[in-house]
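User: Quick sanity check before I run a bigger batch. Here is a single chain. Can you write out its predicted 3D structure?
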Amino acid sequence: MNYEVILIGGGPVGMMLAGELALAGVKACVIERLKETNPYSRALTVHPRTLEILDMRGLKANLMSKGRPLSRGHFAGLDTPLDFSMLDSTSNYTLFLPQTETEKVLEAWADEQEVTVLRGFEAVALNQDEDGVDVIIEGPDGKSTLRALYVVGTDGARSMVRKHAGITFEGSDATFTAILGDAVLSDLSPMSVISQITDQGLISIMPINEQFYRVLMIDMERRNVSKDEAVTLEEFRSSIIRMTGSDLGLSDVRWLSRFGNATRQAGHYRNNRLLLAGDSAHIHFPAGGQGMNVGLQEAMNLGWKLAGAIKGWAPDWLLDSYHTERFPWNTALLRNTEVQTLLMDVTPPIMELRKMLAQLIRIPEANVQLAAQISALDVHYASDAKSPSHPLNGQRFKDLRLKLREGHTIDAYQLLHHGEFVLLHLNGNEQHTLSWKTNSPLQVVYATLAEFEPAWSDVHTALIRPDGHIAWAVSLSNSVPVQTIKEGIARWCGSIENEG
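Assistant: Done. Predicted structure follows.
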């Protein structure tokens, strides 16, 4: 067996998942056909929930040093912006950062965890059996075969892994295409932003840096062109002129792309030893900049579960919960991008609807609801029916301020830097210490809340999952807390022994 997990595709999702697996002690390998990180960045936005999960691994500060925080976003380019600053998070903003920079940070992290990255190699075939998966790769010296316990497809919309797994990719074909390009627009003032929709179509212009701008257009005269037809410089220029009245001083175009609004999702994210994450599991129009972010959040959900299956501590149901938990939220993602593309039409009824919705999201509660959806801060998982009941079960773990029993105060996300379960005891009245022993990575923390948090005011103990969701919480009113905690740990972390 060469590796425990092989990841096909070394984009941000593949690198994030590889790092997660290696953090849990799994021997991982990434196969990537590109010899170096793609210099062209389709994604430019790191959303609040993604910043939170990267904060949990100690990676957020590195990204923040490279990007530009923005407190506002949009839904379908409506005139009223989304206000992320109203979100209840220590990352209540988006980070404007080219995808290539995010990839570099994640690859460096994977390298620190001693992940093997084979660049310039392409996986061309798979064969899984009861004991593992053979991966045939082709590189500079020809073909060779690697073997792993599991293979994860992080290889994009045309995923070879998905096809070899025989997993369906259900949904709809594109009904229009859009144009994307990065260029110098010398007639614009530095760092200008343009977002408008007229009867000519939609145009969005954002500064990548002080020289280059990202231009996205849905040109009504060109929206029926196949995505397989290359965008020419002449087409790009003429579309900008149609949208704005001039070419805006267009020069030095360094990337052009055409893409459509095809919307599809894998029927299942796993076939025995083959799994999917990111664009291999779902594709959609990049409305709101959600795609890369959702893929990174999937990697966070899958990594510790797959590691648990490999290391032998995870209960049988845990790996299957990857699909169970992520599929409905990704379905919701596809629906929200479809709604946004519907609102990008220029017919009079849709234009009037846009005005109405722009008025509605001036209402703070409505604005927060949409901002939470775009940022993925609304994601929560079903409460485990076999764990003690509590309103926090399955919810996202907020970055609490904690005062440890030793006396100093910390941010709770620091406890998750090693990708372990955190058993958080908050009952300051307890004088004794319980030392829990499990086969899974479990960190036991005794603390009190340094700042009042209403949702946590009755919590005796909570088990925080490695991906920053709450497995279960035990109320202060529980009459047998030690027994309840013991059962809850055994349910999620495998065999257990405790000493009083």
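Residues 316-342 form the longest helix (27 residues).

User: Great, the batch can go ahead then.
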